[in-house]
Specification:
- It is a single chain.
- Strands 1-2-5-3-4 form a five-stranded mixed sheet.
- It is of the alpha+beta class.
- The protein contains four helices and five strands.
- It has one domain: Ribosomal Protein S5, domain 2.
- Strand 1 (4-10) and strand 2 (13-21) form a beta hairpin.
């Protein structure tokens, strides 16, 4: 089977994911998962979650490019992209991944700053007199 492509997003981070049949190798930005995320074990587990839920850890290779945001948002974008790629690879994975919320794009992002405010909602201190 040919490569399957999908895109994952979270905040301002984008992950481009290519999935193909293989031995379970993960390459992100030309690095392995351990090189890319270092000691962030919780984030590594989040990235691998779609693969472990669908029992594809040892049967597919993933090559990904991430850009924008921070490493946490990039990891979540990668998780979303892997989930979408798995569904394109085999439609039966949709029923497995959907109950875990892996196919839903987390739409929360930073609220814009409003004029006259210090931040998005923080105001200057109110003075009665």
């Amino acid at each position: 089977m040919a490569k399957v492509y999908a895109t994952g997003r979270r905040k301002t981070a984008i992950a481009k994911v290519w999935l193909e049949v293989g031995q379970g190798e993960l390459t992100i930005n030309g690095k392995t998962l351990n090189e890319w995320l270092g000691g962030h074990e919780a984030l590594k587990m989040r990235v691998k979650q779609p693969l472990s839920v669908s029992k594809q850890l040892e049967s597919v290779n993933i090559v990904a490019q991430t850009l924008g945001g921070g490493y946490s948002a990039q990891a979540d974008a990668l998780r979303h992209g892997i989930s979408r790629a798995l569904v394109r690879y085999d439609e039966n994975f949709k029923a497995i991944l959907k109950p875990y919320g892996l196919l839903t794009r987390d739409s929360r992002s930073v609220e814009r700053k409003k004029p006259g405010k210090k931040k998005a909602r923080k105001s200057t201190q109110f003075s009665k007199r």
